[in-house]
Amino acid sequence: MGEIEPNEDLGWLIKTLEGILGVQRPLVINHLRSLRRKHPDLTPQQVIARLEKQYLAAVSTGGAAVGATAVAPGIGTAAALGLTVAETVGFLEASAFFGQAVTEVHGIAVEDEQRAKALVMGLMLGAGGQSLVKRAAEQAIGRGGMPGNTYWGQLITSAMPAGAMGQVIDFLRRAFLRRMARNTGASMVGRAMPFGIGAVIGGVGNNILGRQVVKAAREAFGPAPLQFDGNLAPRVKEVRPSLGTRIREAREIEREGLGGGLRRLRERRAGRDAAPEQADGAPPVPDAPGDAPSDDPRAQG
Fold first, then answer.
1. Is 177 helix (H, G, I), strand (E, B) or coil?
2. In this predicted model, which residue has the larger pLDDT, 24 or 280?
């Protein structure tokens, strides 16, 4: 494999990616559980299709928004270029979230930050990611040590020995920085163009790049599994009494005295223990307004 010289000016992208991956997995798990709670009939294939639509919408909107700054009064070229850097980070964050989510749907829990980083860089390399990963793996562990009939996403996230990951990540890092330098440079010029042209280039350009990532994800893991991993089972959120209910209870406790207050506390604890809790200590994913839990029945009427 030819030597690829990294662009050290973009080394901050690697650090940004590491920071993103360090906090994203609990959010990914909660997002998938939320999707399954709201749409319990979705199959793994349908969940992945929904993730693809969400991802493409997010990256396309971000590119168009930054491109539109070229026509905003008082925003010059230098400011537009600065916003492009922020948009690049947004694209990276969305791609990392999407890649991790697809991996989890396939039943692979990527808890190792180095493997997650290699996966995201491979996905963002598009069509070249697959061949690059396999060539790097062959150099790291030898052709004879390669697991047979393994998709490259599975190779990176679980099948490849941990000792070989360092060399693979080094190859991916060089190619990734070179690709980002080329894409970022071209997008800066396009988004700084006047008269709204930048908005069109930004939105369309990010959509094209996003579709490359989606295609790479499909090739990385193959067909969706038939069933979900148990870790993605939807969790029923605890129903909390409304403010009106709590005020009325406080007044009743005041009338009933200490004994009544202790009785209500025991009832509340018993009800909480009987309901499934939000798992893993991950921050809860808010439901849509139409999915909000109803108030305590005692608050009705």
1. helix
2. 24
